[in-house]
Amino acid sequence: MFRQFWRLSKPFWTSEEKWKAYGLLAVVIGLNLGSVYMNVLFNSWYNTFYNTLQNYDATGFKAAIFKFGWLAAIWIFISVYRFYLQQMLELKWRRWYAAHMTQRWLDHQSYYRLQLTDRHTDNPDQRIAEDTQMFVSSTLGLALGLMNSLVTFFSFVTILWTLSGPLHFTLGGHEFHIPGYMVWVALIYALVGSVVTVLVGRPLVKLNFEQQRREADFRFGLVRVRENAESVALYHGEVGEVRTLRGRIDAFVANYWALVKRQKRLTWFTSFWGQLAIIFPMIVGAPRYFAKEIPLGGLMQINSAFGQVYGALDFVIGSFASLANWKAIIDRLITFEDSLSKVEALPVPRPAPTAEGLRIADLNVRRPDGTPLFAGLALALKAGDRLLVRGPSGSGKSTLLRTLAGIWPYADGDMAYIKERGVLFLAQKPYLPLGTLREVLCYPAQPSYDDAELNTLLDAVKLHHLVGRLDDVDNWSHILSLGEQQRIAFARALFIRPAVLMMDEASSALDETNEAILYQLVEDRLPGSIIVSVGHRSTLLTFHNHHLETLGDGSWQLA
């Protein structure tokens, strides 16, 4: 577990942010040590204060109250800035970690290839957004808590050893002499409590892991309904969606109930053990008090010191639920890290740049199960060529475009095409980012502020009703029909003017007349671009001078 923990933590603590982080951490540790020292002073104050009460010393009582005032003021100052600077460190770490994981998820199209290679890494968005925050927060809280416990233990164990004195008793005719007996009592008491806590609470790790997964599944189901609202409404699929969502609700509720019942058992024990710890040192120390070996102030100081020593040793008992949750978070992030590492190690053929044209040699494309889609594919296209890829559904037409894009991991061979003026892929369902219509139209290039040019493009692709709305912000993927979204994609291609344009059934939602208008626009305005189209309609043959037929069993024919 600690190797996994360091694997997750090391990138931040060796990053460009490390010196600021180490500085903040040093100050926070210093303030934590200061708070422990203040507890030592308070422990000494207890002895003085209660002895003034026992001795009816009014002058000493007033002096003790005054001393308590400035001790409390210092303690409050330390507590406030300890919290503030710890939160600052947590925020810096979380910001860096979330950005780091987001970058890794987006690099090398890992967000796409994870769907192909790893079906078990669920809800990567939740792992990046939520698990990273919980990991950072829990790590700092538990690490500083453990440090406080260790420092508190070593600070108070000497005090408790000295105050408690030796214990003498006779058992079976033998005399026993135990120096610092209250220290041994605290150790045994904490050890018994820790062992029982671990035995009772161990299942919490798995339950916490499963709870995070099931709640993320439920949130994802809600997002799916929102993103596909129109389709669900057209199908009148509310009953089916309610059934699915209720199933996911029942799943996380069932697991949560198991979590609650396990925590209930743990709380029974920890609450009992914690309450017993309040009175236990008084019971053990009472014989020496009634024997007048120690004054009331000494008894109260022993009680306070025992509480501090036991509290330090009580770390496992008091923090077990947090430790279990922390372990579950580490497991989820490690599985995500492992999945990303496997994806990054996949050999994906990358098209090489070339001075002109598009060339493919001995290209083999397979399904994930190894079934061949294209075997030994070879073709060469020059500037201005148009290639139409046809074949039965499922024969690998779209997969060929994914391979040419360099995102399909189950392929090998040689590919090269001109990249100076860029390559653009148009999918059957275009991606329309959130933002203004101007940003949507120009994506992924920088937005143009030549309104005349963009309005002319909208008019050319028959989106007259959008002319003049370039700076409107809306959820365009919801308010535009699929046909209108495909027209936006064609306008985008005419704006970017790529050297290679690849279209995967990019006009499937359009009627043949409007499809012909858009293809004619591409032919007229991008005469030097290489066009690779996937489509079923025979009407597309007119706009292409090369035809690639595939059957999906590895065989193909180029005409």
Class from helix and strand fractions: alpha/beta
Main sheet: strands, sense, barrel: 6 strands, mixed
Mean of all residue-level pLDDT scores: 84
- Count of DSSP H/I helices: 17
Strand content: 5-15%
What are the low-pLDDT stretches, counting only 5+ consecutive residues below 50? none
C-alpha-based Rg, rounded: 35 Å
**What would the principal axes of the Cα set say about the shape?**
elongated
Counted beta strands: 14
Strand order of the largest sheet: 8-11-12-6-13-14
Can you give the helix content as a percent range? 55-70%
Distance between the termini: 59 Å
Short description, anyone?
This protein is an alpha/beta fold.
Task: Note down, in words, how this protein is organized.
By secondary structure, this protein is of the alpha/beta class. It contains 17 helices and 14 strands. The protein has helices at residues 2-13, 18-54, 58-106, 110-117, 124-164, 181-201, 204-227, 229-235, 238-290, 296-313, 315-345, 397-405, 437-442, 451-460, 476-479, 482-496, 512-525, and strands at residues 167-171, 174-178, 352-353, 358-366, 372-381, 386-390, 411-417, 423-426, 435-436, 473-474, 500-504, 530-534, 546-550, 556-558. The strands form 4 sheets. Strands 8-11-12-6-13-14 form a 6-stranded mixed beta sheet, with helices on both faces. Strands 3-7-4-5 form a 4-stranded mixed beta sheet, covered by helices on one side. The model has no long low-confidence stretch (mean pLDDT 84).
